[in-house]
Batch of 2 targets.
Target 1
Amino acid sequence: MTAYAYFPGCSLHGTAREYAMSTEGVCRALGVELVELDDWNCCGASSAHATNPWLGHGLVARNLRLARATGLRELVLPCAACYARFKETVHALRDPAAAATIEEVAGGEVPRDIAIESLLAVLSRPAHLEKLRAGVVRPLTGISFAPYYGCLLTRPAAVAQFDDPEDPRTLDEMLRILGAEVATWPGKTACCGSSLALSRTDLVLDLSHQILAWAEEAGADAVATACPMCHSNLDTRQRQMRRAGRGNHAMPVYFFTELIGVALGLAPAGLGIPKHLTDAGTLLERAPAGAEG
Amino acid sequence: MARVGVFVCHCGTNVAGTVDCARVAAAAREMPGVVHASDYKYLCSEPGQKLIQDAIAAERLDRVVVASCSPRMHEPTFRRAVAAAGVNPYRMEMANLREHCSWVHSDKLAATAKAIEIVGMLVAKVLRNRALQPGRAELSKRLLVVGGGIAGIQAALDVANAGYDVTLVERSPTIGGKMAMLDKTFPTLDCSACILTPLMVDVAQHSRIELRTSAEVEEVGGFIGNFDVTIRQKARYVDHDDCNGCGTCWEKCPVKDVESEFDQGLGKRPAIYLPFPQAIPNKPVIDADHCRAILYRKARAEQIAARGLSGEAAAKYRPVGPDGKSMQPCAICEKLCATKAIRFDDRDELVKERFGAIIVATGYDIFMLDGSHDEHLSAAERRPYYGEYGYGLFPDVITSLQLERLMHASGPTKGEVVRPSDGKHPKRVVFIACVGSRDEKVGRPYCSKICCMYTAKHAIMLKEHDPAVETCVFYMDLRAGGRSYDEFTRRAQEAYGAQYLRGRVSRVYRKGERYVVQGHDSLLGRPVELEADLVVLANGITSARGAVGLMQTLSISYDGYGFVNEAHVKLRPVETNTAGIYLAGCAAGPKDIPDSVAQAGAAASKVVGLFARPHIETEPLVSEVMARRCVACRLCEEVCAFGAVTFVEQRDGRIAAQINPAVCKGCGVCAAGCRGRAIVLHGFDDQQLLAQVESLFARPRGMRPAGREPEPLVSR
């Protein structure tokens, strides 16, 4: 059993409940123990760090201390936005002047030795992949996915230090292991509009529509993502897009953990798949039924 | 008694601004051994040198200290000046009052005190300087040129025309390099082949040039005037003495589908081939990795050995190919060859020759997006670059060199510019500049210099090929420095309608039969999206594959990108830091054809200058072993970076180290390391160095500035 400190973030407790359900289910099945931080707080994404960078760093700093308290050296974050915030703070801590300010804001020492990892990166480690490969009972054969990384997982490259920022391939590889087809498409790292969903919904409809249109043109049946923000924009706004004359999409959008869960033979309901606003259950019925359920 | 003269230079205000030079001269007059001291505004000027020479004559000086700038600047000047007045040049020392004192201080009083101390040290040293004489070494007047591109060709011809023997080594089967692949050249649009091939023929026919294609430099020993070079002549499987280049073999070769290196993978060639019609030598070679006869022989020998077959079983054995089927022997070219020139059993051959000088003209490779050029990384660490451009994924995203081949009359399409995917003529071509140039993220922060120009050329040429074609160029900055260069890029825009968009491309993707190029127009500050039929990447220049290995073999220094370092960036641009090894062309960084040719000519003139001498004069400031004290511990051999140390049997049978004065650079590492103090570095022996140290620290206390009382370094 490999254990990691675990920061779910607000999305996984709210709009992306299915990401949390599938993450926890899949990790259990793969023998990955997630130790959720006790009394974690907001990562500061969108509003806090945009208002005041030190406030953003301060919020992360408190969580880093909680991570230290677990005694574990690696903190895994499923949410790409949280991941970006944490990475940004850990990066800032390398500069002595910035570190001093962050510690002043945080009211004390901030650990620098906690490794920040995205869930996608952790589950893509050879040991976990091997276990996953062996555990696939219901391969997603014949279903084509557009691997969608969004902007936060790989950028800025110097901070995120994950995969190729222009052409990431980690999720592609993961999908192939699940037996799925991987579409070649231009949208891998395109922006979905993110939190502008609230202030400039029109922009988000444009950008998210473009992403879904690219996926359709590339012949994908669905989009696979590792970001709750992207998922929210792509999954929940398809009807709005239709009404605004932005395509006629009916494309399921999955968290990659949901797909792992299905391939491992876990029940779709337990993975939260029925929670999607765009029907995500029907497509998966194409995958051959698993030996376990 | 020694008679020392001290000359303090003002260097305008460079020294005099911070140091009271008259006071330094006055203080020097009081130093032991000094019989004359004066100061002057510019000692390096002609009257300045005359002043020194007159003082030498008038005061019968036998040693001189010039207190001025760094010896890196003017040591040769003042050595010549004192030598002309009859003082041994190695009895002249320079006290560096500029870089070591005036330039780094602002307090005039303290700087003057320090200047006096510096002068004192050099006076103490020069009193112990012995008169040294340069040594002599043999000079082999033969030149080795490595690399047969335009730079190597030009250098070889220039030196051969001056009457010296030249060997030109080229690793590919033909000379001509990248220039031979080009269609036209900027900014005149000359046909590249028309200006290059006559030179290639000259090389082939020159009585003083020995041409070795399919050959590489394997090992280099020795020193200027005496480089011992081992050349690997790779197996060509065709005897070029017997072959008459009739062409029957490559026409009849049954293998026809090998990707042509010369056509950048866009065309096919047989297994026995001539890289291109005007190749020099104009005789084919066999590609052993694709020739059925050679593959059959190799597999047969390996499988017989692996199975332990012998006798009749071995004689009748038929090898099995990688596909599991029994292999078919082939000997079509051998049978058809009228002059019996095919040699399936040809092997690599090592040839050892002595050269007096070497010119490195190894050229460049274009930046490849698969990361295969990152030779400093292991295969696992290499990663592809610019995934967003879709190179390798989309057949119609091509390199600039591929476009050259498509435009070339003897290229894979006979000069018709068509899309590799479907053979259709493109209606709109989008160029992306700076692919692998000026980008830290791909480890190439430098400008490749030629891409702005060749992209403008491509835009012009495409329009010439098809007036209906539209061309768009995404660029970062237009760098067209050079005679008629800026006019050329303007012509591309104004007369040929190329649309230039300032900004980077973020994504190329397929849309039906066309491609969408998404980018950013930084002048308008807004995103742009263009549909294109063909996307051309303006690949930058990287050092040639294997260049770093060769530079290590040659012991010459190179930079972090694999380009050769010049001995001095401004003043010695065609010399390397190893005497006798010169450079030309893109081996030392991105260059266009005229610059490469100019550099080749300059390198050739250096070689001719060297060969005009009767012998090599060697620097006397080198290490020497006192054989009687040497215990042959071999530490000096280990620490010597230049391979100057050998071990020789003495008359009494003992083994002792010997330092070749022609190879030694006088770095002194061996002398410092020698446990038995058996090595002396002339000009910097223990007595000289200790005298300097003592002058600084062991003087009476009253002479030192207050507040600084260091203990003497040397115990007596």
Target 2
Amino acid sequence: MSNNDVSRRSFMVRTIIVIFAFIGASLGAALGGFGIIPALKKRETGWSDAGTVAELTVGQPQERRFSELVKSGWQSEKQDRTIWIVKKTDNSVVAYSSSCTHLGCGYRWVEAQQRFACPCHGSFFDINGTVLAGPAPRSLDTLPARVENNRLLVRYEVFQLGSSAKVRV
Amino acid sequence: MITTIIDWIDERTKIRSIWDFITNRPIPGGASWFYVLGSTLLFIFILQMLSGIFLALYYVPTPDHAYASVKYIQNEAFLGSLVRGMHHWGASFMMVLIALHMLRVFIFGSYKKPRELVWLLGIGLIGIVFGFAFTGYLLPWDQKAYWATVVGTNVAGTVPVVGGLLVKIMRGGAELGNLTLSRFHAIHTYILPWSLALLAGMHIFLLELAGAGGRWNPARNTPDKTEPLFPHQIFKDSIVILIVFLAITALAVLSPAGLEPQADPTDTTYNPRPEWYFYFVFQLLRIFEGRYEVIGTFILPTIAGMLLMLLPFVDRNPERAPAKRKLLMAIAAVTVVGVLGLTILGGMAPVPSVTAPSVLAGRLLYEKNGCSACHSIHAKGGAIGPDLTHVGSKRDRDWLIRHFKDPQAFSPGSIMPKTALPENELNELTDYMQSLK
């Protein structure tokens, strides 16, 4: 085998490697981007009507449901939402996301104990959303809310859970 | 006739020599009941593939139709409950057997040179099986599926730095929805089966190349004790496979796979619990709180995975007898007891008794008696009768009970039928109404 043959052989080997490395890298980047990038889009939110504030009593949280139109990939669909609303002594109204800040289970108000309880890993919150016990890393997440013509308007937002910082996703 | 056909094929493919090569594969020290676990796992994988493919004949992976299609499989399709039940119980058996298989290999020291790569592939296979369990869970789109996946994906969110990104990539967006379902479906039915087939194929092929380990005492692996794979070992394998198959079938018939009400993201009364094989993770989440959470969700599982992967490279002493590897045996025992203990504790974890049982019973009565055909609660239900969302703050108990018994006496011209429920059920329904404030 002459030197010429060796360099010819190594040229072919290198070319084969480069061709498949190129195909692998570009296909990997394209498929990875296709699978991941759409998932990172921030969700768009609008104001939703969460009902009247006339029926609220101070110190008695109410669960409210409403639906909003959400665009999710190819689908625009009506999505049902739950929030908890609390009337404060100064007559202001606070709206809480219904996801426990630990790992997202739906929590509920326990009248007898005057606190919110999460059924999953045993987190408890007082009426102001402050953590009383359990693994929840931060207070309940408040949602942007305003009162107009005696109706409560809420912007339903989603936050990253399980961390002490409240970060919108 | 058959011989002629095989001869014809053999002339072109040397199939007889391939068959001989595989079936005469030597089992050092002879066949053993301890070696049946790997082939039983292979059998369950095939069973899961077959039952899964047939489930896909009816299953539709969109939030609009997933639940209804699974309900159809479960309640209407001919033998649907059996096929789904086998897939469901097959998953549980796979979990148990893969744990036993790993434990067997660990105790026998079979992961040692020259089988380190076989062990590594095995760790990869365990990861894939957990991936199957986690993604399979969501597909029925019932309450359990939905909430377990909410929690499960949020667990990934506690991974330092990249957690948030990870959750979004897993869910296909900020929230659990149609994109999550199609993603989990694609992973469960395309990505993982192919990955498992590839890794399991390599696992078996590399074991073939390295040779089976046999008994831990080399003195017992003498040529005179060696037996061929077929029929000696395959016979034992077949017996256990038959028992496992019968057990899975019996469980599928006697204890069919559950199907809870359709996923309701707005339900704050549901008490989410994972499938039993995730109870130990669930319990870890209850133990590590606040900033220590990441220990249970990320650090411990990562360390465990790393240790398992490093095991054959750290433990390079060729000694395989358990009696001479006391420290490792102790670690294994502690781990087994620990995982079992966490699983049992997780299974017994109390649910905060925040909703009175009678309220829950009343809620079920409301659903069962079709009240929602006319009335709506939180914008769900008919519009013929009054909205009951806040009925508890409008009517007292006495009014509600008397109204149930004779609606027309209170609302002349009302078309609501008189409620003919026994006294205790009437009380439960009233408790539910009163809880709506």
